[in-house]
């Protein structure tokens, strides 16, 4: 009897050990997974203001604009600098040609000359150089505006792509679940096999859409990092949402603001620089004079001389440089006029895209989204109760997915058109909140 009890207790102990082993193994696996999850550092997340600040610090295009500004300032220094004086020293023997001379002697001559520009020529040089600094300043402002606009557009593009990724990921998971349910019904004979084929096709399409959306997010983040520079790691996340600012000024008001566009400001500065160069070329016909002083000594005589040298514009009247400078003035004026027409054309096109996107958003938000969702719910309920087949439910699911994708695309088109108008005007329509 005691032996039977011992055997039974041994069996129960063995059974408990066998039951505890899977539990212990599961606990260990969970511990390892938890430790790996804790040890994995979270990706750095950046907001739009942080991205813009980083781009302003690390994007090399600003370094190029800064160097061009330094070149323009150096040109002002060059134009304001006086020419260096010139010293000339001569020495050699002298021989009397008349009878009665006392043999050979040595004499020497030291001369000093200083070239001076006329005041109106000097002022024209400085004015032309200072006009170049205005062009560089306008170019730097334009670079900042362009970079800021491109970073904002790329940032919002990544947000839109992430929203699409989240949508298709949910659809993929849902279609995989539907596929498993359909497979179960097919295996039990409740549904025909073509429903499983249809479910497999939809699941594969959802997986393809998910992989495509994942690649698009990666591409968008890579492009954004290329704009920002080395201040952002290779792997990062973005935080934010698409701004929905309803209402812009009228098209007439926007047209009036075009004259203040930084692009036109830069071209006006270029025109002023060309006019200043033309003025300088005209005055360089007679640029200045040269003051001279010298002392000459021979054995019997020391001579002091003072004089001035002025070039005479007889043969070279600078007709070629003046004509070239005049052509540059006409070219810059034509470029300014052409760019103003282009800005007005681009403004009207961007405003039309804005109006179309606004109408699409209104259609989606005022019924199209809710209608597609209602149709999906009805189809899902009918499929669960056996009133409809899997094909009708799949069609409703596909339609709802396409409607939501089109809604996200319309939101981004709305924001993108406003950013284009913002870039053309050089003013901030979509305020970046810190």
- Derived structural class: alpha+beta
| Radius of gyration of CA atoms, rounded to a whole number | 41 Å
How many structural domains does the protein architecture include?
A: 1
Count every helix, treating DSSP H or I runs of 4 or more residues as helices.
9
Write the element-wise H/E pattern from the N-terminal end onward: HEHHEEHHEHHEEHH
Main sheet record: 4 strands, antiparallel
CATH architecture: Up-down Bundle
Fraction of residues in helix: over 70%
The dominant shape is: elongated
Quick one: CATH class? Mainly Alpha
What's the pLDDT, averaged over the residues?
Answer: 84
Let me know the number of strands: 6
Instruction: Going across the biggest sheet, name each strand in turn.
Output: 2-3-5-6
Task: Give the CATH superfamily.
Answer: Outer membrane efflux proteins (OEP)
Between the first and last Cα atoms, what is the distance in angstroms? Answer: 82 Å
Protein name: Outer membrane protein, cobalt-zinc-cadmium efflux system
Organism: Methylobacillus rhizosphaerae
Family: Belongs to the outer membrane factor (OMF) (TC 1.B.17) family.
GO molecular function: efflux transmembrane transporter activity
């Amino acid at each position: 009897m005691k032996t039977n009890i011992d055997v039974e207790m041994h069996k129960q102990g063995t059974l408990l050990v066998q039951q505890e082993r899977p539990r212990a193994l599961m606990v260990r696996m969970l511990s390892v997974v938890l430790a790996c999850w804790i040890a994995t550092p979270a990706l750095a997340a950046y907001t739009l203001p942080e991205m813009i600040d980083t781009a302003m610090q690390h994007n090399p295009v600003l370094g190029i604009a800064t160097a061009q500004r330094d070149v323009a300032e150096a040109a002002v220094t060059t134009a304001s600098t006086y020419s260096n004086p010139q010293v000339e020293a001569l020495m050699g023997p002298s021989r009397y040609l008349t009878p009665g001379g006392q043999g050979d002697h040595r004499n020497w001559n030291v001369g000093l000359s200083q070239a001076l520009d006329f005041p109106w020529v000097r002022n024209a040089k400085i004015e032309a150089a200072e006009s170049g600094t205005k062009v560089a300043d306008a170019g730097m402002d334009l670079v900042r505006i362009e970079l800021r606009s491109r970073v904002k557009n790329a940032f919002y593009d990544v947000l839109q792509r992430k929203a699409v990724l989240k949508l298709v990921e949910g659809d993929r998971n849902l279609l995989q679940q539907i596929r498993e349910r359909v497979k179960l019904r097919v295996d039990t004979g409740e549904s025909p096999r073509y429903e499983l084929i249809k479910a497999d096709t939809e699941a594969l399409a959802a997986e393809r859409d998910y992989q495509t959306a994942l690649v698009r997010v990666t591409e968008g983040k890579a492009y954004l990092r290329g704009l920002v520079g080395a201040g952002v790691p290779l792997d990062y996340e973005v935080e934010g949402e698409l701004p929905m600012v309803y209402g812009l000024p009228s098209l007439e008001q926007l047209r009036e603001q075009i004259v203040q566009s930084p692009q036109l400001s830069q071209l006006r500065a270029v025109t002023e620089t060309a006019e200043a160069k033309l003025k300088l070329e005209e005055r360089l016909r007679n640029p200045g004079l040269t003051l001279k002083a010298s002392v000459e000594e021979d054995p019997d005589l020391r001579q002091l001389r003072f004089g001035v040298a002025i070039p005479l514009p007889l043969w070279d009247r600078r007709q070629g440089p003046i004509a070239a400078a005049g052509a540059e003035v006409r070219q810059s004026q034509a470029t300014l006029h052409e760019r103003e027409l282009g800005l007005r054309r681009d403004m009207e096109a961007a405003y039309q895209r804005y109006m179309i996107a606004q109408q699409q958003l209104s259609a989606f938000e005022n019924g199209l989204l809710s209608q597609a969702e209602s149709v999906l719910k009805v189809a899902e309920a009918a499929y669960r109760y056996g009133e409809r087949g899997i094909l009708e439910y799949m069609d409703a699911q596909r339609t709802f997915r396409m409607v939501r994708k089109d809604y996200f695309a319309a939101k981004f088109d709305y924001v993108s058109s406003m950013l284009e108008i913002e870039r053309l005007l050089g003013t901030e329509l979509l305020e970046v909140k810190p």
